[in-house]
Amino acid sequence: MLHSAKAAFTLLRVQLTRSCLSTRFGFGSSLPNISGRFKSAATVIKTIDSQNSIGKWLIGLSGMTFGAVVLGGVTRLTESGLSMVDWHPFKETPPFTEEQWILEFEKYKQFPEYSFFISQHGEMTLSRFKFIWYMEYIHRMWGRAIGAAFIAPATYFWFKGYFTSGMKPRVLIYGSLIGFQGLLGWLMVRSGLREPRRPAGLGKDEEYVGVPRVDHYWLCGHFCSALLLYTLFLWGSLNHLVQHPPVSLFLFYITWILYLRVVD
């Protein structure tokens, strides 16, 4: 009896909230038509629980993506983005011994950013190199953590049948965008490892140490794709959590406030 009452109350709230949000903003379109498809109260509760799990997973991914954007900004502000001159998608471990660090430092010295740093500051210590290297390493590992946090739950939800037919293409799009984001990041870094262009009119014999910069098109693409991922994850999470009591009530009240303001 208690389960039936809970299901009936939840069903009423879902339908009312989804109807309101769909009319005004398009939220709730991925939720199944519970009243028409399910007869059992237990099935209703199970379906709502699965939608809650997907919503919490997506909102966690949106938070991690936002964190990646912040880390990317910190990496750029500390001028650490070009410290790692190699890219290995599935195997990227930090140096452990002093000899390994020296070898990594020697590889970095072969690229323009080191020459520019020397021209401005006179010397770069190994400890300074370790700092900028770890900043970029954390940024890359955070991106891989997003990939792991996406793949493992997505695989579980897929085989458990949690995803609706409309949700499955979105999941594939999410995964493709995550991989594309990583590729864009490396293309951006690689563009900054090239020799800066010499100014027009400068003689071939004249020494020139230019400022190494990543290509602004790759930088813009990398940043915008991260924002797109964040938006899609957040939108998808709201689409699934709209029937969750705290979220649904909050969105319900906000929607009515906006509706009344528009009508007035």
TrEMBL record:
GO terms assigned for molecular function: heme A synthase activity; metal ion binding; oxidoreductase activity, acting on NAD(P)H, heme protein as acceptor
TM region positions: 141-159, 171-189, 217-235, 247-263
Keywords carried by this UniProt record: Heme biosynthesis, Iron, Membrane, Metal-binding, Oxidoreductase, Transmembrane, Transmembrane helix
Catalytic reaction annotation: Fe(II)-heme o + 2 A + H2O = Fe(II)-heme a + 2 AH2
Name the record gives this protein: Cytochrome c oxidase assembly protein COX15
GO cellular component terms listed in the entry, alphabetical order: mitochondrial inner membrane
GO biological process: heme A biosynthetic process
Subcellular locations according to the entry: Membrane
Highest taxon, organism lineage: Eukaryota
Primary site of residence: membrane
Pathway where this protein functions: Porphyrin-containing compound metabolism; heme A biosynthesis; heme A from heme O: step 1/1
Annotated PANTHER family: CYTOCHROME C OXIDASE ASSEMBLY PROTEIN COX15, CYTOCHROME C OXIDASE ASSEMBLY PROTEIN COX15 HOMOLOG
Cofactor section: heme b
One Pfam family linked to the record: COX15-CtaA
Membrane topology: Multi-pass membrane protein
